[in-house]
Amino acid sequence: MYERKILPNLNCGLDLIGEVLYGKWKIRLLWFINQGHQRPSELQRKIPDATRRVLNIQLKELEDHELITKKIYPVVPPKVEYSLTEFGETLIPVISTLGNWGDKNEERLRSVILKRLNSENQ
């Protein structure tokens, strides 16, 4: 398992947020769980570019940070569902605001991202 070599800087709110939300799929996972997609297979369908392994790692990290809870039902085959904690629910308005900002600036963001990608590939 991965072992961190450098301890994170936790001196301000932005550092703390980065530590908790750093990960390509975490914000999307929180958003989709809030929308009612609670089973791992549903989340995998919503984020097909992510591998099952990476999703499981990021779900575990969100659980460790007390943003989601995992419920395992004692049935065969096993059934697992994720839900937001009260603490996790407090992030939804923040994620919504970020999404709205992205929507409002979609053309500009897409343009600068593509420009950067094109310059890296030359």
TrEMBL record:
PANTHER family: TRANSCRIPTIONAL REGULATOR, TRANSCRIPTIONAL REGULATOR, MARR FAMILY
All residue ranges annotated as the HTH hxlR-type domain in the record: 12-110
Protein name from the UniProt record: Helix-turn-helix transcriptional regulator
Keyword line: DNA-binding, Transcription, Transcription regulation
Organism domain of life: Bacteria
Organism: Chryseobacterium formosus
